[in-house]
């Protein structure tokens, strides 16, 4: 995990506006949320063995995530990589299969983030800042 400095850290806005601004860029609201916090993710690649994300955490400061239109405060964005072991067979499905990777735990949850993804993540984050910071 690599934390990125950003002008959006501590920014407060409602969930609807956050999604309205970032979904067109390719961000998705992560299924990994609770009533008081969550993440919005940009998947930078899907090689079948590794997945790189720009992740923006948020926490509810008024209302609850998943209910209505809560006001959220953004946390510090970070880059994250999950790497899957290649070539292992699991019930006849190799690790090269996206189906297998989708349902298996990563070999490395906090894998090395290549310089290319750091550069790409910083550029994507600049676009996010341009949309959210007026």
From TrEMBL:
<protein>
    <recommendedName>
        <fullName>YugN-like family protein</fullName>
    </recommendedName>
</protein>
<dbReference type="InterPro" id="IPR036491">
    <property type="entry name" value="YugN-like_sf"/>
</dbReference>
<dbReference type="InterPro" id="IPR014967">
    <property type="entry name" value="Uncharacterised_YugN-like"/>
</dbReference>
<dbReference type="Pfam" id="PF08868">
    <property type="entry name" value="YugN"/>
</dbReference>
């Amino acid at each position: 995990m690599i934390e990125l400095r950003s002008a959006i850290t501590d920014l407060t806005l409602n969930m609807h506006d956050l999604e309205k601004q970032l979904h067109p860029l390719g961000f998705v609201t992560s299924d990994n949320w609770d009533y008081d916090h969550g993440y919005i993710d940009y998947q930078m690649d899907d090689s079948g063995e590794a997945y790189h994300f720009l992740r923006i955490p948020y926490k509810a400061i008024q209302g609850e995530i998943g209910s209505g239109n809560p006001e959220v405060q953004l946390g510090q964005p970070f880059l994250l990589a999950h790497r899957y072991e290649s070539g292992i067979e699991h019930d006849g499905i190799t690790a090269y299969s996206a189906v297998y990777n989708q349902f298996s735990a990563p070999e490395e949850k906090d894998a090395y983030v290549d310089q290319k993804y750091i550069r790409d993540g910083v550029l994507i984050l600049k676009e996010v800042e341009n949309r959210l910071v007026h």
